[in-house]
C-alpha cells in the first residue's frame, strides 16, 4: 500500500527556504518541515490525514528545476497530489538574466507543466520569506502575485507574518 493512500497529498516545491536546508544541517534527524506540517495538520480537528512531500532543493530556481530533469524525475509522476505549494524567486532573482521578464515566464511554464501532470491538484503560489532585503522581496512577491492573478490562483502570502515574527528575535522562524 502506498504511503499516500487515503491521505491528502501535499507537494512543496521551492528552494532552501522551503527545503529547510539549515535545520537539516543542524539537526539531521529532524523533525523537518514536511513532518512538522503533517503533525500540525493532524492536530487540527476535522482534517483528513495528510502526507507532505518536500521536493525542494537548496539553490534551486524554476529554470534549473525544469531544465535539470529534476521536475520530471521527482515531481511530474507523483500519484494523487491534491495541493502544490510553489515558492521560488530568491535564487531566480540572483541567477536569471532579465529577472522581471524571465521569472514570470518561467513561473507560467511551471504552472502549465503542473496543470498538465497534476490536473486535480490545487496550485498555490507562495510569497518568499524575508530572506533578501525588503525591496528585493517586494519585487519578487509582486511578480508572484502578478503570475497568480493571470493564472487565476490564490496566493499564500507568508511574508507579512514571517516578517512580524522575525521582529521578536533574529532567526526566530528560520
Write the layout of secondary structure elements.
Elements: E1 8-14, H1 16-19, H2 21-26, H3 33-43, E2 50-54, H4 62-67, H5 70-74, E3 83-87, H6 90-95, H7 99-117, E4 122-125, H8 134-150, H9 159-166
Parallel strand pairs: 1-2, 1-3, 3-4
Helix pairs in contact: 7-8
Describe it.
There is one protein chain. By secondary structure, the chain is α/β, with parallel strands linked by helices. The protein has helices at 16-19, 21-26, 33-43, 62-67, 70-74, 90-95, 99-117, 134-150, 159-166; strands spanning 8-14, 50-54, 83-87, 122-125. Strands 2-1-3-4 form a 4-stranded parallel β-sheet, sandwiched between helices. The longest helix has 19 residues, at 99-117. The N and C termini lie far apart (35 Å).
Distance between the amino and carboxyl termini: 35 Å
Query: What ranges have pLDDT less than 50 throughout 5 or more consecutive residues?
Result: none
Shape: globular
* Average pLDDT taken over every residue: 94
Q: What's the alpha carbon Rg, rounded to whole Å?
A: 16 Å
Largest sheet: 4 strands, parallel
Tell me the number of helical segments per DSSP (H or I, 4 or more residues long).
Answer: 9
- DSSP strand content: 5-15%
SS content category: alpha/beta
User: Biggest sheet: strands side by side, in what order?
Assistant: 2-1-3-4
Fraction in helix: 40-55%
Q: Please write the string of helix (H) and strand (E) elements.
A: EHHHEHHEHHEHH
How many DSSP E strands? 4
Keywords:
174 residues, 4-stranded parallel sheet, 47% helix, globular
Amino acid at each position: 500500500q502506498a504511503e499516500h493512500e487515503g491521505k491528502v497529498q501535499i507537494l512543496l516545491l521551492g528552494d532552501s527556504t522551503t527545503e529547510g536546508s539549515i535545520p537539516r544541517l543542524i539537526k539531521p534527524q529532524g523533525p523537518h518541515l514536511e513532518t512538522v506540517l503533517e503533525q500540525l495538520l493532524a492536530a487540527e480537528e476535522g482534517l483528513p490525514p495528510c502526507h507532505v512531500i518536500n521536493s525542494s532543493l537548496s539553490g534551486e530556481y524554476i529554470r534549473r528545476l525544469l531544465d535539470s530533469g529534476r521536475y520530471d524525475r521527482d515531481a511530474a509522476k507523483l500519484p494523487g497530489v491534491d495541493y502544490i505549494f510553489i515558492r521560488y524567486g530568491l535564487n531566480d532573482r540572483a541567477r536569471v538574466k532579465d529577472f522581471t521578464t524571465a521569472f514570470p515566464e518561467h513561473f507560467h511554464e511551471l504552472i502549465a507543466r503542473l496543470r498538465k501532470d497534476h490536473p486535480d491538484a490545487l496550485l498555490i503560489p507562495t510569497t518568499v520569506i524575508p530572506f533578501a532585503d525588503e525591496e528585493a522581496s517586494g519585487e519578487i512577491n509582486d511578480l508572484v502575485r502578478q503570475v497568480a492573478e493571470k493564472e487565476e490562483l490564490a496566493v499564500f502570502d507568508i511574508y507579512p507574518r514571517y516578517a512580524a515574527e522575525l521582529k521578536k528575535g533574529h532567526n526566530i522562524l528560520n
